[in-house]
Amino acid sequence: MVADWFTGEGCTFRLLGTRCSACSGMFFPREDTNCRNPGCPGGELEEFPLSRRGRVWSYTDARYRPPSPYVTNPELPWVPYALIAVELAAERMVVLGQAAPGITVADLTVGMEVEAVSGVLYEDAETVWTTWHWRPTGGGA
């Protein structure tokens, strides 16, 4: 798991962002050193949970094995997955992530409501790398 990018399980699962106290800029992935807004004089960065639900802004198939440093098992066959860009209206940002297992591009439409859920990126005998996935909620556009 990437430290401090998300918290909780089940219905309490949330991605974590940071907000600048000076300019109200919001960031994901989180920022812990300085505000990314070049016009900001700098302020305290405060952690906040992002909205659990958003709408599909765009999507595509990931049909190739990603290069290092992304973790994949080269001994297993590559299985394509859907990659979704999700617009979070309250934060006015788009967050990229994999679709939940079993969800393909054929299951997605722009504007569809999705929610962030915990998932497994990769696991071996010693470690489980956790991540987030986007899963359709059943709500339409």
Describe this structure in words.
The protein contains no helices and nine strands. The strands form two sheets. Strands 5-6-7-9-8 form a five-stranded mixed beta barrel. Strands 1, 2, 3 and 4 form a four-stranded antiparallel beta sheet that branches. It has two domains: 6-49; 53-136. The protein has strands at 6-7, 14-20, 26-27, 45-49, 53-62, 81-88, 93-99, 113-123, 128-136. By secondary structure, the chain is mostly beta strands.
Q: What sort of overall outline do the alpha carbons produce when their principal axes are compared?
A: globular
Regions with pLDDT < 50 over 5+ consecutive residues? none
Strand arrangement, major sheet: 5-6-7-9-8
What is the residue-averaged pLDDT? 88
**From the structure provided, what is the oligomeric state, counting identical versus distinct chains?**
single chain
Figure out the total of helices: 0
How many beta-strand runs? 9
Order of SSEs: EEEEEEEEE
Q: Any idea how many domains?
A: 2
Overall radius of gyration = 16 Å
Spatial gap, N to C terminus: 32 Å
The portion of residues forming beta strands comes to: 35-45%
Structural class per helix/strand content?
mainly beta
Question: How helical, in percent, are the residues?
Answer: under 10%
| Largest sheet: number of strands, sense, barrel closure | 5 strands, mixed, barrel
